[in-house]
Here is the input.
Amino acid sequence: MAGERVLVVEDNEKNMKLFRDVLQAKGYRTLEATTGSRAVELAAEHSPDLVLMDIQLPDIDGVEALGRLRADARTASLPVLALTAQAMQGDRERFLAAGFDGYLSKPLNIAELVATVRQYCDGRGRCDTQAALGGAGEQQTEDGER
Ligand code: MN
Here is the structure.
């Protein structure tokens, strides 16, 4: 389950460091963007396995960046989770309606972050591709946390 690439889009340095430290400690690779437009570029270039998208960003916001990802065939089907500041009532519906696959609220709960990233990365992307190409997917061991 390790080695998947997670694109983290976050303009707050401390939050970015937290994402990087936690994800790398769990064996994920991170791609990092501090603006929405850079996120769109990186996603198209690298096809990450998962995108964690802050909503409040210095240029285009996370909803607009998501719209651009969905409008581009290269990135249209990437799983994208919204990173929302302390969830207000109704936010969940708003972000899901905008096309996000899910969301994580900040301040971040580390266990929830790890569990959610696993949920979206395990058994998809590279692992599925390897399995389709010759059964190498069995290298992926489950740890029962699905
Ligand atoms: Mn922000």
Summary: DSSP finds six helices and five strands in the chain.
